[in-house]
């Protein structure tokens, strides 16, 4: 299968490494920064559309800054080229509609990298909670992202190009897991603030949110911690408290599952899920099966985050 990667920064390199490790045919790479292409023996491009039209890969991996995802996804789908895009799906609500319409028209498949859904602990928790009534939940992400991190890419820290801060970038995975485990909520009241990088970034480094309606849970996320703490999710059913850590799941205090897979590609905050997600996606491309994290599924957490940004502390619909 002919594959291509666009955007060879921090995560694009990981995508290319996984494709190489799996013996997949990486036939083209594209980055506007030519220096990022030097390490690859594949065909090199600086223009995405030219690459799609000349190479016609069967799968293109989109690993570019957030604001580029929507147009790049649509350009590939219009050419009936399968797309595996990094999160977030997009950063504007009108782009959700454009992407879903393009996906419907296309003969190709769209998948989005919500790889934490494939982490052992989250697979266990999802299966454990299936059929049980969830009555509440809370999730928290306390990570550290300093001025040097935001200076590492000119798209970071800006509304127009990153589309937000800790919520749409670092905490998106955990919020996606919350809705996967507790159910998709109808409303949110949220507050966002910039507590540690005022004057450095435009976007929020800290957010708190109360989700309600069809499901009820609270969520806290910050990039202003001085330490990268493990993510924590707690789900309450009528009779059980299910605590999900990165390496184990506890039910009413009893350890129910211990994750053995700790093989990371890249930073440990990326988790262990990319490779499993690739296997699932490529399996669906080959068999014509439906990949679970398509446009509609990936749009759920983007809708929740955009509602948080709109909320201004008041309860709004999602
Ligand atoms: N799933 C995860 O855990 C995870 C982890 C890290 C990053 N990401 C996501 O991956 C994406 C990229 O993040 P990153 O940290 O690798 O960013 P980065 O800044 O390190 O890399 C982005 C790359 O895209 C290139 N680029 C910019 N405009 C381009 C264009 N028009 N055509 C081709 N290339 C272009 C840049 O030159 C750069 O090399 C983001 O959406 C981010 O949220 C996901």
Q: Could you give the order of strands across the largest sheet?
A: 14-13-12-11-7-10-9-8-15
Q: Give the class from helix and strand content and strand pairing.
A: alpha/beta
Distinct bound molecules: nicotinamide-adenine-dinucleotide
The percent of residues in helical segments reads 25-40%
Gyration radius over CA: 19 Å
Shape assignment: globular
- Biggest sheet, open or closed, and with what strands and sense? 9 strands, mixed
Mean pLDDT: 95
CATH top-level class of the largest domain? Alpha Beta
The arrangement of helices and strands along the chain is EHEEHEHEHEHEHHEEEEEEEHHE
CATH superfamily of the largest domain: Dihydrodipicolinate Reductase, domain 2
Strand content: 15-25%
Describe, in plain words, how this protein is organized in 3D.
The protein has 318 residues and is of the alpha/beta class. The protein folds into two domains: 2-115, 3-Layer(aba) Sandwich (Rossmann fold), CATH 3.40.50.720; 119-269 and 294-317, Dihydrodipicolinate Reductase, domain 2. 31% of the residues lie in helices and 25% in strands. The protein is built from nine helices and 15 strands. The strands form two sheets. It has a nine-stranded mixed β-sheet, with helices on one face. A six-stranded parallel β-sheet has the order 3-2-1-4-5-6, with helices on both faces. The protein is globular. It starts with a strand and ends with a strand.
